[in-house]
Amino acid sequence: MSNESINWDKLGFDYIKTDKRYLSVFRNGEWDNGTLTEDNVLHISEGSTALHYGQQCFEGMKAYRCKDGSINLFRPDQNAARMQRSCDRLLMPRVPTEQFIDACKQVVKANERFIPPYGKGALYLRPFVIGTGDNIGVRTAPEFIFSIFAIPVGSYFKGGMTPHKFLISDYDRAAPQGTGAAKVGGNYAASLQPGYEAKKAGFADCIYLDPLTHSKIEEVGSANFFGITANNEFVTPKSASVLPGITRLSLMELAESRLGLKVIEGDVEINNLARFVEAGACGTAAVITPIGGIQYNGKLHVFHSETEVGPVTRKLYDELTGIQSGDVEGPAGWIVKVA
Ligand code: PLP
Ligand code: COI
Q1: With a threshold of 0.90, does the pTM exceed it?
Q2: Does 186 lie in the same domain as 140?
């Protein structure tokens, strides 16, 4: 695809084949040096554990074009570390942080013409590790692939920074001691049907409750939850089955250090939503998506407004996106320059 045919003002979150992707193979106990390839099709054994037993994990991160033309990666060390934890959980070999970040830089440079202009979105990077090689028993794979591809993206939730409605799901995406905290495909497989049903009913996505008691908010199927109280508190769920998001972690730090909010990682009771004056979904793809309302047991609970973005959500958004695109100085180490 030529980038001349991309309408930068209309970018959503859709697959576009870009020029090059990174591919490294783990064989005989080590990762090879990795190469860039134009081929976007993987040739793997029909017995690959990734195909049968969900032995795979992935990451989501973005490269941003700055005003001065340079390119920023946002906290790639955090993505490398989370992918290592996901690999540990599914008995896959860790990709060393240095190899991970170097591969990200290679993919961004090789697809530079697909980075949206300053302020028009970002180049989304999708690193993943899959179990490959001939196998049939339920066990870890004999070989693995680590790959990263890149896609120019705009808003994940249509409309971006406008309030969206979410539906509390009756389904669970993760088990109490399961894989919810790892970024593995199985969690997303479990979310396909609930997400489809929520969207069919007119909601942006669904929100999951804790799988043990179904009384506390956990997260959106593709982003974390936060709420702002009238007492200037930033509250986000604490749970072993929630994905520890890097956007969430960053907002917790910014809420405290730059907005002077008190940060609370704790229970978010579904029956006490009235404590929040604002709420939002946050993640790499979702950025910050304001939550206008949450439907639970047939009733819509509206936060700040169904149409207007709340003032604290707006400030958090400006601070976060300002840092990512290089307009605002971020805390030390958050930005890694590609070029
Ligand atoms: N929760 C889920 C289920 C996600 O898929 C994501 C997206 O990656 C997040 C939370 C947010 O994580 P991050 O901010 O690291 O993108
Ligand atoms: C991300 O925000 O990077 C995600 O992985 C969310 C979704 C696209 C699965």
Answers
A1: yes
A2: no
Domain match, 142 and 170 both: no
pLDDT tens sequence across 124-150: 999 999 999 999 999 999 999 999 999
For residue 332, being part of any structural domain is answered with no
Residue whose CB lies within 8 A of the most ligand 2 atoms, among 222, 224, 243, 288, for a mutation test: 222
Segments forming the whole domain that contains residue 273: 164-324
What is the tens place of the pLDDT at every residue in 24-56?
999 999 999 999 999 999 999 999 999 999 999
219 lines ligand 1 (CB under 6 A): yes
E strands of the chain, at which residues?
21-27, 30-31, 35-37, 56-58, 61-65, 71-74, 122-132, 143-153, 164-168, 205-209, 217-220, 223-229, 233-237, 262-266, 276-283, 287-296, 299-302, 335-337
Give the Cα separation of 208 and 160 in Å (integer): 21
In this structure, what are the phi and psi dihedrals at residue 219, rounded to the nearest 5 degrees?
-170, 170
Please name which ligand lies nearest the alpha carbon of 225.
1
Ligand 2 binding pocket mutation candidate from 61, 188, 282, 284 (most atoms within 8 A of CB):
284
